[in-house]
């Protein structure tokens, strides 16, 4: 250690220190393997796409894989397997690929379970990403975008110029306040509080005097404190009057009262941006999230049968047999193959007769899927940019709508824009899901207008989706409790004879496209290994 | 107040509370004028562009304005004045517009004072923004981009996946660590420390028991603390092994030792992102920062005389007379007009004979300009994206290079990329400025390679700039001390008879394009008012 000051060493310190190799390590590779480089984001296993030569050498060409569902998982599985020349067929119930990866444009239609037909009226060039919408850097989704040539742009997940807005939360209720302002005040007060007690060295912590000095110096910067370690406000929170040219130094406003700030609950939303999945920077495909399934689809000419609704999933020791109905004419058909990859979401799968074991059937029907919904509004003017200077990002509120998403493209130059007017979960999503389309629109307009009074004058049309009411999904994503992870998740991840489940629900990244990609890779590797082993130890049913 | 708990009211509380109108205020407009809406970013004065009708009605058409410098300030002044029909001529020493707003592309050349000619070798489509590079949402620059039709994209100023890297800073030296990891640990430990003392209610602060509870709840979320308010690490800091599909929950690493963290100094850089000028989201023009001067130039056909180096700035009670040299042939020319707007940076201006008062001349020569420099490297592969998963953003280090900027465009799809390899100030900038071009390259490569060992293998070419050595600038931006602001700044902002100074140096936004835009608007308004008043009270010299 290079620090010559006498230092209090606690056991935790020691373990931390011993756990790392001390001193200078010059070799990048060595550090990588020692896990010392903060950037090493190793996957548990390196994926190897199946190769044609694998099959040829083992004399295993011609294997037929039936894949159920042309979402991310299904198409990725086909894409990877076809690299080795597997004969893949995808059965897709809808007339489009993507599954939950769905971009709604003008003319898009949807009818929810028990609902009326809805047709989007967005202008050309405008769209709504109705399901997934953003990608963090560490997700494998990024790698697939690179491989498939999908162009990315920044998704503005975190913008200090967006708002918090709270109701029934004390004196700061019913006031839209910029997130940067709240964060500045929060940091200021909290830093001040700790700086004062750090001074007293009354902390029950293994810090030397030098450490305390460094900590106070950090707190002064972190909080924007004055020289006496007090928070008096800061220009970081914004201005009452902006600094400008000439003799205009600008004027900073006084900070909010700390007790009122705490009462408002706004501070509790700050950490939402810290999660590893949501840290900046995040990304989206240019022109709609469905550029990803479109790029996959392009790699799968002739592979996908659309409008094919699976009726039965059967298997024997020799192969699989899928019974499906062609929606166009109601005819029943069958297709056979060597293996099946089933990516059908569990709430739908549980109602399809299948040759699974009882424990598997039990697991399938016990997993709850998230109720979640969104609405998108087309506005004839981008008032949030033109009048409120918000370019992208998310406003957060404790009203039912939960959040407002501003578009991350077409800044300033696009006349019109599509906002997400609510994106909620649980009981709020159930509530909105139970409303008619026009009731959803009315309620979201009413709530949103408290934040953006321009809503009513500028709105042109809307499109809403309640994922738990979408026929082939019946939920946004799988939600595993601790008990589910223990009792059901391992079963779901076991192949059922020749049938393998894949999808975001077979991952620790539920709700993210990366979960579907990762799961597909695992199943592809597993089947490929199985095929290469065939004849040595047979696949068994159940 | 809606809080029924008995509450300690301090004087500061009372002042804060009384300073705001309490209770619910439903009318947005009223709140706007009361300054209660966190979004009100009022300028000190609303700018009104001069109108043709103003001049016609006052019979003041035909006024001739000579503008020195075709940077942002000069061209904006001409642009706004021409809306009213003023006859504007801009004299520009260079053969291009933009001044410090300069995008270096393949073929761009520059020769620094006392230096050798440098020619950029960037591939088509790649570029370096050598001066300004990013725009916050509240700057008037955004409004001009909208008005002029300049397309914007996000400038990734803050990316948790970029690194801190410190030397001579304790046990965490010589280790690149992701910013998100450092921030998570810092928040964790600091939140833990405060949560523990908050529990004891030993804080010298006017917080009720409910407030303390809310504060601790906030700290738990903020720090990612366990139920006993201790920081044990968090998946927010990233993973040793990422969560994936199937049975891969991922593995979180242990946090850094807090004392080592404090010693490293990395925590002190965290607040750099909090300044009001640097908060997310920030923006850049698509295709280079010089899209802004190009768009202005397009509005000024026939207005700009290039290669015209100002030699003398003269005036009488009747008008102004500018003597300049055409660089092409060395000839001396003169141009006369009614008013002059001089945007020449002060270090250059101080050496040009001018009819200014002595106090003005004294002010001009006493303002220090920042030493600052950048280097850009073209790499044949975007290794930072492909291998380290960094898409845009800035790595920060205490090495001389100070920072590495990753490009905010062409993610994944562009094969090659241009990085900023250093961007430094003060004595580091002087040091690099004194090196030869190849020495700068070598030193920046050597330092950067400690963070990115791929540097040496992938580098193709470089281009460096030391702004204090650029002939027509001799500095990055004006740097005012408190004493300068008191003694010199007001003088600089006073018109000198018919001559008005404009530019970022005549603003509280020095170093930002917005300073130039704001200053130009002020001078335009001032001259226009002067013109309309003419004949009533004459403009005086000195």
Automatic annotation (TrEMBL), chains A, B:
Residues 72-527 form the Amine oxidase domain. It holds the Pfam family Amino_oxidase. InterPro entries: Amino_oxidase (IPR002937), FAD/NAD-bd_sf (IPR036188), Flavin_monoamine_oxidase (IPR050281), TAT_signal (IPR006311). It comes from the Bacteria. This is Flavin monoamine oxidase family protein.
């Amino acid at each position: 250690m290079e620090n010559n000051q006498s230092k209090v060493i606690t056991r935790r310190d020691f373990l931390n220190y011993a756990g790392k190799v001390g001193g200078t390590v010059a070799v990048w590779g060595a550090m990588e393997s020692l896990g010392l480089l903060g950037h090493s984001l190793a996957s548990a296993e390196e994926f190897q796409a199946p190769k044609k030569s694998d099959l040829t050498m083992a004399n295993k060409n011609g294997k037929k894989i039936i894949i159920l569902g042309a979402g991310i998982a299904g198409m990725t599985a086909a894409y990877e397997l076809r690299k080795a020349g597997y004969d893949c067929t995808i059965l897709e119930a809808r007339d489009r690929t993507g599954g939950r990866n769905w971009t709604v444009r003008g003319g898009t239609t949807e009818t929810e379970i028990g609902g009326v037909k809805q047709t989007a009226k967005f202008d050309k060039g405008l769209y709504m990403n109705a399901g997934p919408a953003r990608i963090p850097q560490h997700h494998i989704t990024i790698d697939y975008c690179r491989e498939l040539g999908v162009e990315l742009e920044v998704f503005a997940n975190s913008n200090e110029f967006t708002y918090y807005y709270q109701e029934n939360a004390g004196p700061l209720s019913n006031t839209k306040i910029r997130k940067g302002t709240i964060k500045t005040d929060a940091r200021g007060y909290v830093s001040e509080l700790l700086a004062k007690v750090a001074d007293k060295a009354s902390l029950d912590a293994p810090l030397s005097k030098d450490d305390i000095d460094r900590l106070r110096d950090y707190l002064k910067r972190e909080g924007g404190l004055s020289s006496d370690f007090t928070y008096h406000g800061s220009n970081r929170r914004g201005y009452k009057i902006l600094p400008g040219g000439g003799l205009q130094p600008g004027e900073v406003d006084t900070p909010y009262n700390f007790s009122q700030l705490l009462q408002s609950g706004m501070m509790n939303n700050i950490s939402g941006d810290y999660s590893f999945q949501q840290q900046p920077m995040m990304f989206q495909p240019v022109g709609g999230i469905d550029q990803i399934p479109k790029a996959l689809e392009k790699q799968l000419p002739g592979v996908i049968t659309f409008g094919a609704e699976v009726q039965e999933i059967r298997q024997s020791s020799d192969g699989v047999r899928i019974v499906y109905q062609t929606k166009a004419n109601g005819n029943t058909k069958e297709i056979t193959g060597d293996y099946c990859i089933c990516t059908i979401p569990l709430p739908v799968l549980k109602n399809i007769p299948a040759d699974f074991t009882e424990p598997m059937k039990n697991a399938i029907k016990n997993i709850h899927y998230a109720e979640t919904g969104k609405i998108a509004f087309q506005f004839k003017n981008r008032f949030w940019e033109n009048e409120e200077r918000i370019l992208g990002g998310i406003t957060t509120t404790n009203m039912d709508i939960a959040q407002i998403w501003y578009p991350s493209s077409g800044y300033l130059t696009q006349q019109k824009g599509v906002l997400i007017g609510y994106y909620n979960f649980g009981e709020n999503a159930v509530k909105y899901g139970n409303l008619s389309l026009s009731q959803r629109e009315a309620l979201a307009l009413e709530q949103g207008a408290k934040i953006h009074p321009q809503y009513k004058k500028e709105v042109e049309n809307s499109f809403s989706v309640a994922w738990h009411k979408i026929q082939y999904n019946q939920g946004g994503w799988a939600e595993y409790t601790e008990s589910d992870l223990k009792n059901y998740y391992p079963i779901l991840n076991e192949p059922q004879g020749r049938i393998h489940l894949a999808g975001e629900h077979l991952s620790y990244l539920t709700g993210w496209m990366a979960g579907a990609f990762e799961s597909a890779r695992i199943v592809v590797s597993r089947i490929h290994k199985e095929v290469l082993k065939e004849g040595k130890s047979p696949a068994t049913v159940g």
